[in-house]
Amino acid sequence: MKPVLILRFAATEGPGYFSTFLDEKHIPIQIIKIDEGDDLPSSILDFSGLVLMGGPMSVNDELPWIRPVLTLISEADQAGLPLLGHCLGGQLISKAFGAKVISNKVKEIGWGQVQVSVNEVAQSWFGEMEIFNSFHWHGETFELPLGATHLLASANCRNQAYALGKHLALQCHLEMTVPMVQSWCMNGADELAQAAVSHDHLYAGVQQADAIQQDLPLHCFFLNKVARQVYTQWIKGLQH
Known about the structure:
globular
């Protein structure tokens, strides 16, 4: 099988559990590290699917790689390759399909429940699940592209996921592992400290590091189960 192409935009925001899952399924991957200046491939046709990870930047920033990444997303769609976006990745997919990425009403950081939408498409991705505890770290959110089906919502963010054919865009993070959560808490210490002393409503959805890391292995265990369900559905669309 051709490898799955994974775009990484920040050193701490790699594929996490997703790469573990693909390894178990004996599906090869190739990681392009945008944060290290790696070039995008000349052709998406060398790959079976396109996955975009998270990052602290905004898709609305004037960064030199954003336009080429949006073009690559469109090329993957036109070639029939499935797309999978995590947080920033989901926002990039949305922008490529003509939907807006805007500020969320609050920053959402830490563990929080998401509700699975009641429709057949959501059931195909999440099975019989109605609600689960996901991980969040974002200040922006996407609107849904034309033709997309809403999949997930949280109390602080209406659009947590959508499907568009075999494409899946996530605002929340299903890919988290224990070491990833720990490193994010360390790297995001300044942001968490700012939230701790602020009375701005913007930070109402922010948990502190001690709360985030409480029962962390258990949280990740159950999140990985959700991710396995979702990723199992996603790989059905891979181009062999």
